[in-house]
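Appendix B. Chain record.
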Amino acid sequence: MRWPSWSPPVRHHYPRAARDRQRSSHGQATIEPRSVQASAVEWYPPTTNVFLSSAVFPRMVRAFGTMVMLKLEDCPGLDKLTRVRADSERDRLRRVSVLAGNGGLYFPQFLARGADGAMTGFAFPDMLVKVYERFVAGDRDGAEDLFDAYLPLVVYEQQPGYGLAVRKEILRRRGAIRNAATRAPGPRLRPADVSEIDALIARLERRLGGR
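Structure tokens predicted for this chain:
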């Protein structure tokens, strides 16, 4: 299955009508070929600098039958998710999966507002899975308690640019990758950074060990 993903061009702020036209023309060019069975859309204004209102979403669902998923990375984006779900229900639209990004920073709150899961980078993806499983099983407090244990690492890893080096170092320690070096001109960890990661992981292990 071909699964294209598309988002607006970088570094443009459009008036609302112009944004809608741009989204429509981009979607027609990218999605409509018959060979495409499903497509995903990413809203990520921290990188693209393009801000789309929630009112665009119902129009996209109606216009593009192949659209099956929205990765919502407005920061924080919680109110936008609430409006997306409410507008979809009001207009009786087919359900489109909405996945949380932003390193999982607001994951429990996204789930509570109607997200279907996460599609994001974090050095402990198994935590995100367990949080989701607890939430859908009806154990919301348990889901948030588990998330809280990892929250200092979630926040630490969200440092712009530098966070990728943190994530790769933790993944290396967990045996997922062999080399934690980032591509030039990416950041390099210094001794103080490594010490902070050591302390955060030790703190996490103490909290998990006390469960």
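Further analysis of this model is presented in Appendix C.
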